[in-house]
Amino acid sequence: MPVGAEADETACLYKVLVVGEAGAGKTCIIRRYVHGIFQISTKSTIGVDFALKMLAWQGERQITLQIWDIAGQEHYGQMTRVYYQSAVGALVVFDLTKADSFEAVTKWKHDIDNKVFLSDGRPIPCVLLANKCDLQPLSQFKSKEEMDAYCQELSFAGWFETSALKEIGIKEAFDKLVEQIVRHDTQEAPRDAQAGGRVRIGEGKGPPAKEKKSGCC
Ligand SMILES: Nc1nc2c(ncn2[C@@H]2O[C@H](COP(=O)(O)OP(=O)(O)O)[C@@H](O)[C@H]2O)c(=O)[nH]1
Ligand SMILES: [Mg+2]
Q1: Are the C-beta atoms of 93 and 129 separated by less than 8 Å?
Q2: What are the DSSP E strand ranges found in 9-155?
Q3: 189 alpha carbon to ligand 2 midpoint, in Å?
Q4: Ligand index nearest the alpha carbon of residue 19
Q5: Residue 162 backbone phi and psi in degrees, to 5
Q6: How many CA atoms, within 13 angstroms, populate the side-chain half-sphere of residue 45?
């Protein structure tokens, strides 16, 4: 940091998880969102991989999403608390062409709800992605009303029909998640990153950030 430069108090780093069954399209979705590309073959990595996405949220807040791809840990319940630790939001992805993949959504959601919490004890916001709509439209699978009811029952903040291939719904889904994360964050007292997931970018490197009673940054 240049001499005299202040840490940007409006900058936040949020850890976001992308979970769901193997083959649902998680890696493709992340690559589409972060790099704007679609790769037909995504080499399955072992362990966890993450990507960073910088956002100027509503023109006033610099947000960096640290997006964790749970490659190789796709059996729900296998993910340890370390993966979940400090996450402040999650996308749960299923493959519209595979019924099994949708059935696993409930298990993933329960796993998240049991393993990670915001610092005030609330569950982290989650958004549901019905991926590969280029192969099969959602309407052939469930009605919008059924999806709404399902999301309400499982406390998803919303659902989106997506295609990483055709670039449908991906940005909208992430935007919804970020909106929810920011809303939750601005409603609670500040905490350190280990305790709950938010990191003020520049913390520890520059001058101490000013005290704030609440709010994201
Ligand atoms: N048609 C179509 N194929 C997709 C889409 N997203 C992913 N795929 C394909 O589905 C397979 C699994 O994708 P991948 O991202 O590796 O799934 P992951 O195991 O959940 O990370 C790959 O062959 C992708 O090319 C999509 O939106 N539409
Ligand atoms: Mg993958």
Answers
A1: yes
A2: 11-20, 49-57, 61-69, 87-95, 126-131
A3: 35
A4: 1
A5: -130, 160
A6: 11
- The Å distance, Cα 165 to ligand 1 centre, comes to 8
Residue type, 53: K
Ligand 1 and 37: CB distance under 6 A: no
Which domains occur in the chain, in start order?
11-195 (3.40.50.300)
pLDDT of the chain, 217 residues: tens digit per residue:
444 445 566 689 999 999 999 999 999 999 999 999 897 765 655 566 889 999 998 888 899 999 999 876 667 666 777 889 999 999 999 999 999 999 999 999 999 999 999 988 999 999 999 999 999 999 999 999 999 999 999 999 999 999 999 999 999 999 999 999 999 988 764 444 444 445 444 333 333 333 333 333 3
- Closest residue CA from atom 6 of ligand 1: 25
Question: Does residue 134 line the site of ligand 1, with CB under 6 A?
Answer: yes
